[in-house]
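User: I'm putting together a teaching handout on how multi-component assemblies are represented. Below are the sequence lines for each component of a complex, exactly as they appear in our records. Could you produce the 3D structure of the whole assembly as structure tokens, so the students can see both representations side by side? Please keep the chain order the same as the input.
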Amino acid sequence: MRTPRTPTASPEIERLIELLGKTPGLGPRSARRAALHLLKKKDQLMIPLGAALLEAAEKVVACGVCGALDTLSPCALCTAQGRDDGLICVVAEVGDVWALERAGAFKGRYHVLGGVLSALDGVRPEDLRVAGLVERAGAPGVREVIIALSATVDGQTTAHYLTERLAPLGVAVTRLAHGVPVGGELELLDDGTLFAAFSSRRPL
Amino acid sequence: MRRWAWTTTPEMEWLDDAIVLGARPFGESKAIAEVFARSHGRYGGVVHGGMGKTMRPILQAGNLVRVGWKARLSEQLGFYSPLDLLEPHAGKLFDDPIALAGLSSAIELTRAATAERQSYPGLYDALLVLIAALPNSDMWAPLYARFEIGLLAEMGYGLDLERCALTGVGEDLAFVSPRSGRAASAEAGAPYAEKLLRLPPFLVRNDASIESGDVADALALAGYFLERRVFDARGENLPEIRRRLIERLGFAGRL
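Assistant: Of course. Below is the structure of the complete assembly, with chains in the same order as your input.
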């Protein structure tokens, strides 16, 4: 959507707002606020931010092994010592890798698909990094592939597709549980989550 | 301050039961959702807070919702309010890859074949019955095939399965002509059997038993006409998910 023109703003400011408005999570209003804030703090924020953007654009690349972003390929996560090479966690986007790393719940290797299958958005299996996953999962020593995709129709359709593709390799394929979140109260949960939680119940 | 006065006609504001067809992010926290409403057909609209924790579970394809749609002008995209979940069908299918493929295929066929803002109450009812059957029954595959035959009829390309095009009899129908879409009896069609499409009995009579191979024949029949009469005319292919569904049903021995 085109950003509405800011009254009395110069073309340079308009351009800045327009570009900021194209980033996820920033709409036209937020983009205007961000632009104004940057312009007010030129030396402390705007110039260092510009330099950081340039440097990241020059140096950051997608890892040739897992698809995550880093300045090196293979990335730091693929080369890190002490991580379990026998476990591969499949995620849709790089942001999911960062979320899992923040949680510290997984100490294996990652594989970023680059999205999920979607009829609505026209995303087909060949648009995703599936071939690379099959190749990695077939390597000696890989014991388990953990599919960590979203609990949506598209996410789970993709999970089942990957399970079928990985089945001939004989490697264990698991997926993350669906159910009650930590701190979640039953009466506030949606019906779909409650149904999934009941389906996935386990003995105490 | 003067409040905006809504001047609405029935086309600019409605309330209806609908099946969610899909949603994608829009702006900071909104989503553009597409629903298939019983009396209004396939509609798009903005959902405020559609990417939030509350609305995202509701906007899963296949869920039954009660939805209000409003716009200042009927040709505008409009927005949904209220949007309440009536039946969370999608979440019930996540563990069943074949049922999930059945849901995705039916949803995608509906989305791709139907015209926007045109009501198809019969198709809506058929889709809802199919979706409700997906988690509970191993017998939904014939229902799915019937849904595709019904979709053809709703698009104006219904097959004539009442009587034999050659002899006029209404009994023992076993084939369909790929050219006319009209049925032929087993006896009259036998000399041309190689050129005709097989017509499984359960598509003609509700009480017919379903034998091995019948669902495959029904899907081949529906697929043949859907491809040539609906999708080819638009320069599109049948959805990929439909091929995967048939493949999965075959592997599971349910064709």
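A couple of points students might notice: Chain A has a mean pLDDT of 90. Chain A touches chain B at residues 1, 24-27, 30, 119-121, 124, 151-153, 156-157, 160-161, 163-164, 178, 190-193, 195-196, 199 (CB under 8 Å).
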